[in-house]
Amino acid sequence: MNGAETPLRTLLNIGVDVCFANPGTSEMQFVAALDRHPAMRGVLCLFEGVATGAADGYARMAGRPAATLLHLGPGLANGLANLHNARRAHTPVVNVVGDHARSHKELDSPLESDIDAAAATVSHWVRRPQTAAHIGRDTAAAVAAAMSAGVPGAPDRSHTGTSGAISTLIVAADLSWEESAPPVPHLSAPPRRCVTRADVETTAALVAGAEHVALLIDGAGLGERGLQAADRIRKATGTAAFCPTWPARLRRGVGVPAIQSLGYRAETVNQQLAGIKHLVLVGAREPVASFAYPGRPGLLTPPGTRVHRFVPDEGFDVIDALSELADTVAPDTLAVLPAQDTHPPVADEPLRTGNWAKVIGALLPPEAIVVDESITEGMNTLFSATANAAPHDVLGLTGLAIGQGIPVAAGAAIACPERPVVCLQADGSALYTISGLWTQAREKLDVTTVILNNRSYAILRAELDRVGAGQAGPAANALFDLGRPDIDFTAVATGMGVPATRAASTAELAEQFSTALATPGPHLIEAILQPA
Amino acid sequence: MNGAETPLRTLLNIGVDVCFANPGTSEMQFVAALDRHPAMRGVLCLFEGVATGAADGYARMAGRPAATLLHLGPGLANGLANLHNARRAHTPVVNVVGDHARSHKELDSPLESDIDAAAATVSHWVRRPQTAAHIGRDTAAAVAAAMSAGVPGAPDRSHTGTSGAISTLIVAADLSWEESAPPVPHLSAPPRRCVTRADVETTAALVAGAEHVALLIDGAGLGERGLQAADRIRKATGTAAFCPTWPARLRRGVGVPAIQSLGYRAETVNQQLAGIKHLVLVGAREPVASFAYPGRPGLLTPPGTRVHRFVPDEGFDVIDALSELADTVAPDTLAVLPAQDTHPPVADEPLRTGNWAKVIGALLPPEAIVVDESITEGMNTLFSATANAAPHDVLGLTGLAIGQGIPVAAGAAIACPERPVVCLQADGSALYTISGLWTQAREKLDVTTVILNNRSYAILRAELDRVGAGQAGPAANALFDLGRPDIDFTAVATGMGVPATRAASTAELAEQFSTALATPGPHLIEAILQPA
């Protein structure tokens, strides 16, 4: 068995059986080993940012990591932005990055670069096997680290039983030529820790007390069990519950207790948290603004609010903590489960900010996976429009590195082939990883992408004003405007092998969305939005 | 003047007047400052790899750096692969990367990452201005470092008078809000150094001696003056002259003495250098294989060949050294200038490896800039087919990080609006930075892109065998094959605003290529290549 076969077999032994790949010469032995192990599903991505984003989407839904196969430093570099998002989502990802043969490193050949330094910017765990005999052990360690709640920075993220971190295994090409040791069994990750009974009692006293309390929940707490516990607490004590603006994964819709997401803007959060005396963090971090603005605080907690860390955001069992808290303060209370999906009819009118979301909310199929990179267009409209849609999971833009949507949708569809995936995708962001559409076509994935085409980086217009730089003149506008020429996403998608249509009205969107959902394979709908 | 205006005015004072930009919130003050300084041309790129590749292409042709404007760590990360290529091309680039306000850093907000570490993987010079008062000085230092032959790793690259390195200036958002100092005048770069008379005499004795000698020339030596000197030396002494496989910039065609480029494969280089007793490096580095292969050496110099470093590849004046050597050994010899462009007629037949290049060679217009990312398709055919084409410059894939062609073509066209740009682009590589086509359309650039569509990562099939992994089975083939579905580049290009046609025969390619060159603005021709 050579040094490429050992990691492959080790991954398969542990249950990692999908590899999002964009290989090169230094990874050819891995590619050859795939032919001998068809249990590993190799998924070709035509850009490394697609591979890493797909691995993120896959693991958010599958509850276990996928591998990526990346070519040297530049290949890893192309995947960094979506690994940043995965890191912020606490998604487990195992990167296998090929490197030059060890004898070749000192020659400083054209593709030589500092892979270790690039990997360290996004990885919790980076290792180079020192000999072919170490590859199996190091591969198992990479998976354990990716799944480990014990790794610094790797919190519990166990809707589906995982907690996640980014592992990067850098394998010199010559190790994969050499004879290696047999695959290694799973190294188990340390178990998640539980909060103490004393912590539960203290928090119970707080939420049952007279002062206004809110929970801020993240991670595994945003699955059905966590949300039910939070809702019991709310019903019994009046304690509000919030989640981050764009969580990694959030359960929503009919049958799922509702939770309010914090707004993107500080002003919105200030209103949401007004009057709250105690903010209790449950697997969440203290809320901060995405950016600093002149004269505004970066911490979003109002000055008079005390922050309590009930469940740390790393390595603790959020669901158990929330359930124990609910059992303590609301032993006989049941959660309120929103009733059956009813939506007012959506008037037929030109598409614009707001009304497209109502169409999606009305037509969302049960158990959809909604990948949300709608950014400006969805910011104040999507969650309300889908609040009592059919039950679904939403996967958010955790790290704010745009270009996540199309790849995450591909990965989620591979993880859950029986579920429809709906990707709500801002136009500007779509272009970063547009070739992910081809992977959706190659793999025949049931993804319906709705491009929200407002022909601009809309968020930047608002940001220019917020940083105190005033209104955009011609030069600034040229950097926000995605027109001149307008991008025709139907043509681009068709060119990538994804059937595409264009919708200009709510009726057209509704008809095209229903048709796309009813037809197997990927589809793209370009929703042309009129200025608000 | 605020801290965004100072660097802008400093750049303009120094003559840096093009900025390839993909900004975000942390760069909004720079964007606003563009409105007050229309002399700075802001060019919107829809992905950061397009911005950095365009900056590379611009500087290779303009002889002075462009700036890039990138958003935080993930924005820089997306630009790293083409900065790697620029670094390997010794191109001067000045990156301006916005960062969060200093007060915001400790909050670890969603986009926070280690920008400095990512920047260091590709940059010769990285600095963060510590106060707004330092921004002007640090901006001038960034440009001086980018242009400096004195920076470690920054060799002379002065076809057009520049030598190049990558500078990255990381500017905290709050510095750009604050009051700053006036712009700073140019800090001059240290002059290039000259080889000694003794070095010239030693080398002259070698090339005039009885043993076979070859020059390996790179950098500024590959412009017209350097090639003429090399040809005089050849004519007088029989000394062969070679250049790297894919140099950053090489002058070729009618009126320009020919030089042989080293092959990509070690076997080819072994044949080329067979019998050479002395290899003299002239602004070049010792040739190495791009990858290691089992049982093959990484150094390409044959065992019996002695290597002499006549002109170091960093900081020395290559043109002067070559000219002085020519004046010593060939004082009365004139270079051989290839005669007028004559091409045998190309038979009308289906396009395949080899014949497309003959069409390009026959129809290449005078003073074309040829951006060569043809990889497998051009490897053994392009240079012979264009050897006596009209005079032109070729820009090569220096760092082997694919996805350079379309952006470099955009940058070169902005640097040289009066010259036609021809981008010979492999299909797989094109998809990495495909949105660069939109920038070509937005800026109305005279770029003719020929997609060499062989529907595969053709180079990888060969590499699988070369690393000893044998023939590809179904799983490996799935990772090399760009079909299922076929990508329709005419649709993709049209969607990006670039008119596109498809050619299946040499006659169709010839007709479409001529039409594209005769029509202003960008065009794309998808050349469908039959298997050889």
TrEMBL record, chains A, B:
InterPro entries: THDP-binding, Thiamin_PyroP_enz_TPP-bd_dom, TPP_enz, TPP_enzyme_TPP-bd. Keywords: Thiamine pyrophosphate. Residues 401-526 form the Thiamine pyrophosphate enzyme TPP-binding domain. CDD domains: TPP_BFDC, TPP_PYR_POX_like. Pfam families: TPP_enzyme_C, TPP_enzyme_N. Residues 1-108 form the Thiamine pyrophosphate enzyme N-terminal TPP-binding domain. The keyword ATP-binding does not apply. It comes from the Bacteria. Belongs to the TPP enzyme family. NCBIfam families: PRK07586.1 (NF005760). This is Acetolactate synthase large subunit. It comes from Kitasatospora paranensis.
